[in-house]
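Worked example

This section walks through a single chain of length 447. The input is the sequence exactly as stored; nothing has been trimmed or padded.
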Amino acid sequence: MTEVLLRFAPSPTGHLHVGNARVALINWLFARQSGGRYLLRMDDTDTERSRADFAEAIEKDLLWLGLDWDFQVRQSDRMERYEAAAERLRQAGRLYPCYETDEELSLKRKLQMKQGRPPIYDRAALALGEDDRARLEQEGRVPHWRFLLEDRPIAWNDLVRGEVRFSGNHLSDPVLIRADGRPLYTLSSVIDDMELDVSHVIRGEDHVANTAVQIQLLEALGGTAPEFAHLPLLTDPQGKGLSKRLGALSLRQLRDRDIEPMTINSYLARLGTPDPVEVCRDLDELLGGFDIARFGRATPKFDPDELVHLNAGVIHRMEFSDVAARLEALGLAEADEAFWLAVRPNLERLSDAVEWYRICNGRVEPDIDEPDYCRQAAELLPEEPWDGQTWGNWTARVAGATGRKGKALFRPLRRALTGSSSGPELGALLPLIGRRRAEARLMGKTA
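Given that input, the structure is written out below as tokens.
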């Protein structure tokens, strides 16, 4: 039985965005659920745009999401393999030189579309004789190289789209080698998938036509096509493509907004399925509900605002051990489990804990509009030590002395103690504030 191996193959020409993350996550989940391996492949043959700092940032983003890999390759280290494959195709008569300029090709496409024909390369280069090619090269033209597609059906059973069919004569012979000698994605990706024994390729539906071409290319090189799954591309809530908004949806910017990695993972793992999004504490929990067959062909809508709501759910499931180091990094060196359990239910982002730490340990300007009532409540404060029962016992004494109940009893005390009319349960918060601060604040003093 063939080993399951999936790959995520980003180009290090920019930062990862949510569309990339969705593909990376679904590949990772499929590999791990199948007991297979996960390959990170840097598609860095575009030497003009690929940058080492982008590659490093991609690795950092993947690890932040928890998407580790079993091994990594860089296409820039495999150029000899692509040239060797290209030479085999030349010898087999499946790779031929073309001399048209970009401007000439653009003009051909415009004329074809004007005549109502598909913009498919007309194979004019195949009619060139040796003398024609020599003359063009003497003029300074350097050929690019196209793969000669065969006029026959191409079909595969897509794990998302079902049966997909193409006809070779409806596709344009793809350029595999640029005029400067660099291989294009179509060639390098096929060689890597074939030689590294990739068993499944999960990617966006914008690659469907590429897949048809790549299947013929694989067969021409003696390879076997992997299983394919093509996912619909994400849009915004209005159904518009995300391409123009991706700058605001990069993983690094979501991380800067204090969105948790499991918030993103939980959302993207269900987006495009009929199943409701469920907050998961970790990737192991997410694996339990993953099924590639649940993804459909309908266009999924990505709503950034939904992340904030989901993020609160992720935070509320975190234990103190999950966040202790991060709280310290936020400057909350003395935050302990009691503090975390007290404030956790009111956090949307982890950084929200900073304000509640200040309220418990720093100076607060009390919000008092009933000074006599607050002063009376201060006189009824019990002596320390305080615990989870102190709030209930104290407010019962205040109620007995003043006859107050409900909001009239509790709200003025909260506003005086925290400077806010809402927040964590005061039964848990009051012992963290302590008697000295509580008394001072009830008396209208900043403390």
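What to look for: Strands lie at 5-8, 37-42, 71-74, 95-98, 144-147, 153-158, 162-167, 175-177, 200-204, 227-231.
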